[in-house]
Each structure stands twice: as structure tokens, then as C-alpha cells.
TrEMBL record:
The active site is at H50, H133. The keyword Nucleotidyltransferase does not apply. A motif (HXTX 2) lies at residues 133-136. PANTHER family: RNA 2',3'-CYCLIC PHOSPHODIESTERASE. InterPro entries: Cyclic_Pdiesterase, RNA_CPDase. One of its GO terms (molecular function) is ligase activity. This is RNA 2',3'-cyclic phosphodiesterase. Keywords: Hydrolase, Ligase. Signal peptide: none annotated. HAMAP family: RNA_CPDase. Hydrolyzes RNA 2',3'-cyclic phosphodiester to an RNA 2'-phosphomonoester. A motif (HXTX 1) lies at residues 50-53.
Amino acid sequence: MFDVHGVTDTSHDKPLRLFYALWPDEAARNALLELQMQQRGRRTRPGNLHATLAFLGEQQATHLPLLEEILASLPVDAITLPIDRIGYFKKKRIVWAGSHAVPDTLIALQQSLADKLNEHGIDFDRKNDFTPHITLARDAQPPLDRPFEPFIWGIRQVALVQSMQEGGRLEYNVLTSIYLASET
Ligand code: ATP
Ligand code: MG
């Protein structure tokens, strides 16, 4: 079949690999990079650092407006996340940064997103309990138990993100964002 331009356009049929994430601002990113320097393993590229809220996987591009609408409908209360914990996922061999004190506001945001995805029948990965984390390194040995200076991530940006392979390397491309209130 040909479209009106006489060229078959199948780009809209190609599924996109999508996820929702907390996206760090420059201050948080720099603090995470400092923490990352102390870790062994294959490090996440600086521009790719994030915390996943919900992983959707392959989705039709025609779903994008709905996914953006859902993002726009989320609560925007301020969230401050203390980063005071280095964790390890043994099976995945991932070293991550996270928190011993995940605030209720973040749990509420994730729950609201999960509820809305369920309401609209959008499949996402909910196998595991929600443990907000930023992957610092992959193919990694268990982390060294070193003290570090905790910092507060004042979360501002929540994004719908596309995961893609660009010239053999993994790129996360922010499609749409909302901005949370700031604490002060
Ligand atoms: P790669 O798959 O190449 O190792 P990646 O896991 O970072 O890289 P994606 O698989 O596209 O890239 O995942 C994007 C984000 O979603 C990452 O934060 C990843 O941890 C998370 N994610 C991926 N798969 C799942 C899943 N099945 N359940 C929960 N989160 C997932
Ligand atoms: Mg993956």
C-alpha cells in the first residue's frame, strides 16, 4: 500500500521501548557520578543515569498520547530522596544507589502511576516490589562497603523515556517530562 505521498511509511508501526523514570538534574547527576567513580564494573554513561518508575517495554507509537496524558495527570508534590545507600542486585550483577528512607511522596507517585497504567490496561513490569534505585554499574562484583557522603536528591523531573540502541550504544531519549514542585 502507498500513502498519499507515494511512499510506504511504516515508522508508526514500529514499537518503541519505553519506561517512566525520575530524571536527575545536573546537581544530582554530578553527585551520582562522584558516587559512581567509587564503583567497579561497567559504568552507566553519565547521560543515562536515572531511576525507573515503571518499565513498559515495547509499545505501539499510537499509545504515546495516552502515555503522555497519564504522565501529565500524576501528582507533582515535592519529593526529596536521600541517597544514602549502595545496593547490589546479585542476579543482575548491578550496583545501584538508593535510599534507606524512601519518602511516602515517592511511593505515592509510583502507586499513582501504577494505578493509572492498570486503569488503562497498559502492561508494565510489576514483578518486583518497587525499590527506587539508580543503576551505577553493570556486570559488577558486589560493591565495596565504603562509607560515603549521603546527599539529597530533590527530584524535579519525571519523564517518559525511550530506550534505543544508537550505533551500538544504549541511549535513553526523554520524550516528555513533568516537573515536581520544589520543597522550598
Ligand atoms: P540493557 O538492557 O542493554 O542492559 P538497560 O536495562 O539499562 O540496558 P532497558 O532494558 O531499555 O535498558 O531498560 C530501561 C530501564 O528500565 C532500566 O532502568 C532498566 O533497569 C529498567 N528495566 C528494564 N527491564 C525491566 C523489567 N523487566 N522490569 C523492571 N525494570 C526494567
Ligand atoms: Mg534491560
